[in-house]
Each structure stands twice: as structure tokens, then as C-alpha cells.
Amino acid sequence: MAKYQDDATQLLKAIGGKGNISAVTHCATRMRFVLNDQSIADEKAIDDIPVVKGTFTQAGQFQVIIGNDVATFYNEFTKIAGVEGVSKDAVKSASKQNQNAIQKAIGILAEVFAPLIPAIVVGGLILGFRNIIGEIKFDSLDGQTIVQVSQFWKGTYDFLWLIGEAIFHFLPVGITWSIAKKMGTTQILGIVLGITLVSPQLLNAYSVAETAANKIPYWDFGFFHIEMIGYQAQVIPAMLAGFLLAYLEIGLRKVIPQAISMIFVPFFALIPTVLAAHLILGPIGWSIGSWISNVVYAGLTGSFSWLFGSVFGFLYAPLVITGLHHMTNAIDLQLTADFGGTNLWPMIALSNIAQGSAVLAIIFLHRGNKKEEQISIPATISCYLGVTEPAIFGINLKYVYPFVAAMIGSACAGLLSTSFGVMANSIGVGGLPGILSIKPEFWMPFLLCMAVAIVIPIVLTIFFEKKGILTKAGVVDDSISDLFNN
């Protein structure tokens, strides 16, 4: 008999049978379903299946946590169910039938920024390292920086800016390329569009504020002119231009005959977009981006920064559940462009730590529960490295009280972070390694915030369980038995 035949048969029945499966695939540890009617799925029966370690729903997908054997289980499940597995992209596409307009928009935003995150993380670490060797003055070096006393480190400092500039100054190129990729349009046109926003012949965006209005270069068309201003590191202008190019190309493909589309589709898509980008979309996008970053920055640094920090820290984990947290990537990047760093991202790293700490308390409280530990231990490690979904969906939301404890801990850490004015160079590695992206002058305050994000969720989780606060019927042990024993 196949290893997981019984479990697969039980899962098929519990999710409503073959007829309720619109699409199915798997990732590293989870089965991912798009169900025609999710209300049919019996989640308690699914949780009782021996191989299953938990369930949750995200982005229109019903996900069943299996573990490292998911590939083997998937093969047996599709064989028993008589369904064809599909790619992850196909499941994402099918899952949109279960999403509302806001969820779809957030999903698009997430898919635009996701391919850029590795480069942005590297860029943040590079900026942090350059600050350490080039900005911090050491008493042991007679009040000089490392760069000032070492030619090697001076060369390293200068060389690393080549990468940092490519990542942040030329960010619009990555954004317009990613939009073209996401929308299924011509990626090289997205790249070309991005380059036209940061071309060396344009006045650098960082020089605009200090340049007199009558000194700004422009293209003269006789009866009107367009200012030659670059959009280095600008997020919203690049997004507006990228989506305009994509939709123009998609629309033109429908009306231009295929025999001549290779010539006329790129021509009539790219040129009007570049013109609109510099004449309309760029200035509008810059204004919107500046307004958003100024409002957020005022909240982070103003008289009520402590309130902003505590509210954001408290609500960030719920934003992860809805998917709205992806919007913070654009805000972080805009803050970095306008203010040379972001006060928002440190609180995100602290929220990661808080959720992981709550799970760490669950591991301690429920030690010996081998089935739960297959989720909780990897989830804690994942949280401390910046990925919270396994912890949130696999453990904290299942019990509720650790989730709330983590939110409170995150709120306290966020309050301290904004009170101290902690600033990161840019988006970086989340969780405990997040300190590597924090500006060195804020390391000690951030270490204190990290300690708060660790201690408070652990203490509150233990307290809530012992006192029966926010637990199911106030009897935690019985609920554990019901959920995890077969």
C-alpha cells in the first residue's frame, strides 16, 4: 500500500471531493488548493488527518501543511483524486476567482515587488556596511573612520557604491521590468522605459531641489517644453509609467494585425508612454510619492510618533493576514529615496521577531507535542529570519492568544523604535538579522527594541495560557488534545 494512500483519501473527502478542486499544486511544505466552494471543506476533519500539520487560507488559496514529504504526498493525492496538478503560477491565477478587487490589486503589487526584494536586501546591507566603515568615527583610530585610515577600505567603500547606486538609483528600471514581466508584455520595453526615467542626460532627481527653476534643462518643442528631470529611486512614477506601457501594449496587440505587430506595437506603446511619463505621470507620481512619504515620516518622527509606532506595531501582523503588508515595500523605498533611510522597516523586523517569540513560548508550553513541534520549531526559525506566515497561520492564529501576545509585544517595540527614531538604511533581512540594515548609530536602541519584541510576547503567551485568557473555553490542554491528537 502506498505510504499516504489513506491520508490522501481522507483529505480528498474532507475538502469536498474532486468536484470541489479547481486547481492544486504544492510548494516546499504545503499543498495549495483553489477550491470551487471553500465552505465545503471540513477543516477540523482535515486537521485530524495524521499527515496534516495545519491549514490556513491566504490569497484565495486553501493551504494544507504537510511537511518535507509534501512532494510524495502530492503525487499520491493527485493519483487518487484523478486530478492534474498545475504550476504555482496557474494556481495563483485560478485563486483570483476567490479574491475581491482590493485583494487582486494587492496581489499585483506584491508580485511586482517580490522579484526586486533580493536586490533591495543586498543594497540595504551594502549601505549599512558602507556606513560602518565610512561614517563611524572610532576613538581607537584617533576619531577617524576606517576609510580615512585605510586605503584598502577606502577602495572597498568606493567600489561598493557601484552596486548600491545600481540598486537604488536605478530602481525604476527594475520596477518597469517587473511590471512588464507580471503583465506578460515585452520585458525589454519595460527595461528601456525604466532607463529613460534615469538616463544620465536628465537632471538627477537628487539635484532638483537645489537647482533653480530657470536652470533646469528641458526639451523645447516650440509651443511647449518638457523638463529633463530624472526619477532616480522614485517608485510611483515608475509604477505609473510601467502599467501604462503594459496596458498600451496589451490594447495595441488586439487591434494591430499580427503580421506587422512586431514593428508597430512597440513603437506606438513605448514612445507615447515615455512622453506621458515625463510630461504627466512622472510629476504626478513624484508629488504623490512625496506626499505619502512626508505624511508617514511626519507620523514616524512627530510629536505622536510613539502612538504611530505602537499602532503600526500592533496592526502589522493582521496586515500580513490580509496581504496589505506588501504596500509597505513601496512606502519604505519612497522614504529611503526622500529621507536617506526608513523608520518604518525596523518595526516590520520587530513584528517578525515578536511573532516568532510567541511561537517559542508555545514550544515551551507544549513541549513533548511532537506533531505540533513539526510546525512550531521551523516556524520560529523562519520568523526570526523574517518570514512570519508559517508561524502566524500554523500556530498563532490557531490558538489566538499567542497572536495577540505577539501584537502587543510588537506594539511596545514599535513605540520604543519610533521614540528613539530608529532608522534603517533600506529594506533588509527581516527578523533578528534585521540589525544589519539599521544605521549604526541606532544599533543600541534597536537591540533594546529587539529584547522587548522577544520578552513581552513570551511572557504574555505564557500568562494568557496559564490564566485561560483568549484560549478556547479557557481550557488549553483540552483544545490541544482535540486539535493535534488523532
TrEMBL record:
Q: Where in the cell is it found?
A: Cell membrane
Record: active site: 27
Pfam families in UniProt: PTS_EIIB, PTS_EIIC
Q: How does this chain sit within the bilayer? A: Multi-pass membrane protein
Q: Which keywords does the record carry?
A: Cell membrane, Kinase, Membrane, Phosphotransferase system, Sugar transport, Transferase, Transmembrane, Transmembrane helix, Transport
GO MF terms listed in the record are: kinase activity; protein-N(PI)-phosphohistidine-sugar phosphotransferase activity; protein-phosphocysteine-trehalose phosphotransferase system transporter activity; trehalose transmembrane transporter activity
Biological process annotations from GO: phosphoenolpyruvate-dependent sugar phosphotransferase system
InterPro entries in UniProt: Glu_permease_IIB, PTrfase_EIIB_Cys, PTS_EIIC, PTS_EIIC_1, PTS_IIB_1, PTS_IIBC_treh, PTS_Sugar-Specific_Components
Transmembrane domains' residue ranges: 105-129, 159-180, 187-209, 229-248, 255-274, 304-324, 344-365, 399-422, 442-464
Cellular component, GO, one term: plasma membrane
Q: Where is the PTS EIIC type-1 domain?
A: 107-480
PTS EIIB type-1 domain: which residues?
5-87
> NCBIfam families recorded for this chain?
EIIB_glc, PRK11007.1, PTS-IIBC-Tre
Protein name (record): PTS trehalose transporter subunit IIBC
**Species annotation:** Vagococcus entomophilus
